[in-house]
Amino acid sequence: MFNNTDKRYNQYSAHLKNKFGVKIYKITLDAGFSCPNRDGTISKGGCIFCDDGGSFSQAHSNLLSIEEQVNIGAEKLKTRFKAQKFMSYFQAFSNTYKPVNELEKIYNSALKHPDIVGISIGTRPDCIDKKKIKLISSFKDDYYTWIEYGLQSIHDKTLKKINRGHDFDCFLKAYEKTKEAGINVCVHVIFGLWETHDEIMQTAKKLAQLGIDGVKIHMLCALEETKLAQIYKEGGIKFMDEDEYVNTVCDFLEYLPQTVTIHRLAGNGLSSELIAPQWLGKKFDCLNKIDREFIKRNSYQGSKFVYK
Questions:
Q1: 301/44: higher pLDDT
Q2: What residues does 123 pair with on adjacent strands?
Q3: Residue 308 falls within a domain, yes or no?
Q4: Domain holding 212: CATH number?
Q5: Nearest to 26 by CA among 111, 86, 109
Q6: What are the residue ranges of helices labelled H in the chain?
Q7: Cα separations in angstroms, 152 against 43, 168, 213, 240, 301
Q8: Domain range spanning residue 211?
Q9: Labelling 115: which of 94, 109, 197, 296 has CA 20 to 30 A away?
């Protein structure tokens, strides 16, 4: 139904293949960024779910230069998957949290490889300004350019509970500036944050109304050495089971326009660090269940979105 696949949602990987004619692989990069929610600039300790890797799941040493990381990543992907084209993906922590002159050098280093076709920059909405947006927008004529904002929820009570360090209005201001500059925006959300099903659907409906370009859905999980792990061990939270998550994902996607690219629906988790929920470690089982649930419903992404 989407991008000449049998998927009932707009899978980002299929979207990229349709756009570029070949499968595009992301090279995840660590530029040694920090986060204002961890270094004491706005608060200390970071979000309750964030570990010392800053959501960075694939090991590169930030002792390597960005150019070296790109070259090594590209060669590994070429050898393993016969990959041809790549996107540079800045994933760990807040990848706009440096002065703009430093950012320019870092981003340019990630674009030197001849087979790089795009760049994606993960960050927080409180780590962006007009100068940084202008810099990032300067790449969009030559590269497929994305900013990924960690929002997690539209509800301020939730953002406060997870020690996010910003509110929804902060995200809205950053989003509007980014869209005005013509940059694609992917929004990260998390399911399971002490929210009702209706509150999660409110986030879906608001993002649909805003006209986001992409979404990345995460299941809240407890990793070793995080505040959330301690909360879980003390009985302060109960995580969704897999069936509840699958149904919530399908409900969420039904409210999103078909134009929204879906960057992530399930992840492997870090098996050595994952405490709960344990089902999270079986990525493809979860994705297959989402496919089957859409077929069972005879539904698809956007089925409940009203186009005007």
A1: 301
A2: 149
A3: no
A4: 3.20.20.70
A5: 86
A6: 12-20, 66-81, 100-109, 130-137, 156-161, 168-180, 197-210, 227-233, 242-254, 283-297
A7: 18, 10, 16, 16, 20
A8: 12-297
A9: 94
Tell me the per-residue pLDDT of 8-53, one tens digit each, with 9 for 90 and over. Answer: 999 999 999 999 999 999 999 999 998 888 887 776 678 999 887 5
Q: What six digits make up the tokens of 58?
A: 């694939």
**Residue 30: both structure tokens together:** 């660590």
In the chain, the number of structural domains is: 1
Domain assignment present for 68: yes
User: Cα 211 from chain centroid?
Assistant: 16
Domain annotation covers residue 7: no
Contact indicator for 306, 265 with CB cutoff of 8 Å: no
Q: Which residue has the tokens 């590994």?
A: 76
For 64, how many CA atoms within 13 A lie in the half-sphere containing its CB? Answer: 15
| Each residue's pLDDT tens digit, 191-243 | 999 999 999 999 999 999 999 999 999 999 999 989 999 999 999 999 999 99
Closest by Cα among 148, 129, 124 to 46:
124
CB 95 within 8 A of CB 54: no
**Taking the CA atoms of the chain, what radius of gyration do you get in angstroms?**
19
DSSP state of 44: B
Residues facing 220 on adjacent strands: none
Q: Token pair of 19, please?
A: 């756009």
The proportion of the chain whose per-residue pLDDT surpasses 70, expressed as a percent, equals 94
- Among 20-34, 171-185, 257-271, where is mean pLDDT lowest? 257-271
- Which pLDDT score is estimated for 45? 74
Contacts of 121 (CB under 8 A, 6+ apart): 90, 95, 96, 107, 136, 146, 147, 148
Pairing type for strands 214-219 and 184-191 reads parallel
Task: Read off the amino acid at residue 28.
Answer: T
